[in-house]
Structures are given as C-alpha cells and as structure tokens.
Amino acid sequence: MKTIYRIIPLILILTSCSEKNSKSDAFGNFEATEIIVSSEVAGKILSLTLNDGEELKENQIIGFIDTVQLSLRREQLNAQKKSISTKISGILAQIDVLNEQKKNVEIEKDRVEKLLKDGAATQKQLDDITGSINVINSQINSIKTQNSTVLSELEVMNVQIEQINDQIKKSYIKSPINGTVLEKYIEESEVAVPGKNLFKIADLSNVELKAYVSGDQIGNIKLGQKTKVLFDKNNNEVAEIEGIVSWLASQSEFTPKIIQTKEERVNLVYAVKIKVKNDGSIKIGMPGEVVF
C-alpha cells in the first residue's frame, strides 16, 4: 500500500506538467535588447561609479575620462585665435584709412569735374584724380583678399575648438538608456581607448520571449497579436502574463537543440518574439512558454 501511495502523487505531478505543456504552443527563452557602451575618446578613467546590477537613468553621468591634454590643446587654439583676431583688427583699420582717403579724393574729383565744365581745369587733372581712386580701390581689394585668408584661418580654429569641445563632452561616461547594468568591463584608473567596451546595459522593464513555432503555426500568428506567456514563478507556481507578438522571422531555421516544439518531428521552425512587461520576476535566459 505504501508503494501505491508514493506513486499517486508522482502521477498527479506528471499529469499537471502534461496539462501545462499541452496548452502551450511554443517554447523559448527570455531576452532583452542589450547595449554595449564603448569609449569614444582615449585617456585614463579618473572616475567610474558603476556596479553590476545597478539601475541607471538615461544620460546619467557615471564617470569621466581624463581631459587635461584636450583642455591644454583648447587653450592653445584660443591663444592662436586671439592672435588671428588681432590681425583682422589691423587689416580692418587699414581699410578704414583707405576708405577715408578715397572719400577725400572723390570730393576733389567732383570739384575738378565742375571746373572742367567751366574750362578752369584740364582733362589731365581729372584723369590723375580718377587714377588715384582706382589705385585706392586696388589697395582695398588687396587688403580684403588678405583679410579673407585670415578669416579662413579663424574659421579653421573655430572648427578645431568645436571638435575639442565635443571630445571633452564625450569624455563623460553616460548611460544611453534607463536600464540595468548587466556587465562591467573596465575599472577606474584603467586606460580607455576609442572603441573599448566599458559596460553592457539593458532595459529589463520590457523583455521578449524568443520562441519557435512550426510552419503550420506561423500562418496563424500576426504582428501585434495578444498572447499568454507562462514562466516558472517558483518551484511550485507558474506565472501567466499578457504578451504581444513583436517580431516574426521571415525565414525558417533548424530547431535549436535546447528547444522542444509542439510537433517534435518538425526539423524547420520559425522564430517569433513576444514582448512582455517585466516587474522584475523575469530574468534574461529564463525559459518561457507562449499560448497563441
């Protein structure tokens, strides 16, 4: 009799599992969109307050990279810019002087033209004055050409300063999203280089169950379709939440070894993703089931 009593609970458990599996249409694992944050500048990491599992806000500053050399370079460019600006002031002063001379000569030209009409001046006098105005105009144009070259140098300086300001801005290590730190790759006082991974983060408030269905099932599944998603809450309970189909594979693939589909004999399956809200119970990599 004892043996019979021991067998009955086992039968009940197996029956319960069989009922649970029988109503599930697909199986898979939960995943999230993971972002790997890399360094955009080179330098020693002076500060980095970051730990695995830490919750971060979007644009939250969590550290910064040494910017001393960048700041010194910016000061040098500002000094060069100041020197160039002084040249421009001198050039503009020269143009002002020539314009004043031109104004006086033009007044004299008007006077000679009137005298010429009355026969009190000669054509040569008028030609000489006109020649003087042409010389002044040539000098002004020459100086303006010099000024254009200096202005181009100034513009180059401004662009270089903006580039340095951008690099200094990128020296601050920030979180790109609201999310949870999954893995930290670097420590304070280590040297970062452009492209070097700093940490990995993901928004775990929205996760997706990547499941696999057969060719017979895929035709009945639509984007935006509501589903039921099941996962183990603990050893004795199964949680059920609502999900929405967010992605359908356009091509079939061979059944992954870790997945059992509804029809075990089918070799080719289609991947689907079911988006669900996560209250913290679901972890990346956890198995889940979906009912369409």
Write the layout of secondary structure elements.
Blueprint: H1 2-22, E1 26-31, E2 34-38, E3 43-48, E4 55-56, E5 61-65, H2 68-117, H3 123-170, E6 172-174, E7 179-184, E8 191-192, E9 197-202, E10 206-213, H4 215-218, E11 226-232, E12 238-248, E13 253-254, E14 268-277, E15 287-291
Antiparallel strand pairs: 1-10, 1-15, 2-9, 3-5, 3-8, 4-7, 5-6, 7-9, 10-14, 11-12, 11-15, 12-14, 13-14
Which features would summarize this protein structure in a list?
single chain, alpha+beta, 4 helices, 29% strand, disordered N terminus
Could you explain the architecture of this structure?
The radius of gyration is 39 Å and the shape is elongated. It has helices at 2-22, 68-117, 123-170, 215-218, and strands at 26-31, 34-38, 43-48, 55-56, 61-65, 172-174, 179-184, 191-192, 197-202, 206-213, 226-232, 238-248, 253-254, 268-277, 287-291. Helix 2 (68-117) runs antiparallel to helix 3. The strands form three sheets. It has a six-stranded antiparallel barrel with strand order 1-10-14-12-11-15. Strands 2-9-7-4 form a four-stranded antiparallel β-sheet, with no helix packed on it. Strands 6-5-3-8 form a four-stranded antiparallel β-sheet. The protein is of the alpha+beta class and 292 residues long.
* Structure summary, number of beta strands: 15
> Kindly state the mean pLDDT as a whole number?
85
Q: What form results from the Cα inertia axes?
A: elongated
Assembly of the depicted chains: single chain
Largest sheet report = 6 strands, antiparallel, barrel
Rg result: 39 Å
Sequence stretches where pLDDT stays below 50 over 5 or more residues: 1-22
Order of helices and strands: HEEEEEHHEEEEEHEEEEE
Helix and strand content put the structural class at: alpha+beta
- Strand arrangement in the largest pleated sheet: 1-10-14-12-11-15
Task: Give the terminus-to-terminus CA distance.
Answer: 43 Å
* β-sheet strand percentage: 25-35%
Helix content: 40-55%
Tally the helices.
4
